[in-house]
Amino acid sequence: MPGKVLAHVDCASPYSYFALLHLRRIRPVLASHNVNIDITPVFLGGINHATGNKPPSTLPAKAKYGPYDLARACEHFGTCKLTAPPFFPMVSLLPQRCMCVIKAKYSENVFETVFEKLWVWVFNRHVDLAQPANMKAVLLEAGGLSENQVEEVLRLAGTKEVKSQLNENTRKCIEEYGAFGAPWMWVIRTDEAGKEALAEPVFGSDRWVYVYELLGVPFEDVQLVGKDGQAASSSISVAKL
Length: 241
Hints:
Helix content is 50%, strand content 12%. It is an alpha+beta fold. It has a four-stranded mixed beta sheet with strand order 2-1-3-4, sandwiched between helices. The mean pLDDT is 94.
């Protein structure tokens, strides 16, 4: 059944990185079911402020647990080692504005490839992308953009129009899609005529079963297998490929 996944991400959130990676990997399969993916930059700091949410690192119990969860997620999604930088939680306005510019001016592949690189610089190399010189360096390294194009991206990122665009992305994510964090996905299922039949939010990078079920696409879930080779029954009705 046709549908869309609107994914709202911020490079200040490592779990946004995992969501972006996973969505890019499964895009061809979803496309075979007429499901489109759209990645949108939002400002997580603005979402937290508007909803009263707090970064996990500011809550002692969550901060203590965080490194375990992050390491497990890195292994699960097959990424390089990611750890919280000393400037975490970071102010991501500049990089997110730059991504708004790149999304508007360049191809989907360039946009998403550059976006992926931001998380590596922040959470692996611990480079603060709030600094314009650092942002310029990562855009040049990411590939796909010349030095003149990078300079233009940085210039446009400081304009009223682009600042308003990031604000609008964030406002819509909060007010229309109910966001309180990132990654935040708005999953839409449409009928054959293209009319919206279902639209629901999904938060986080570890709830893909819910996404697939909402879209109505076939999938195989993880099953626990005993020593006798018998698979445990699932409480979820799983459509087999």
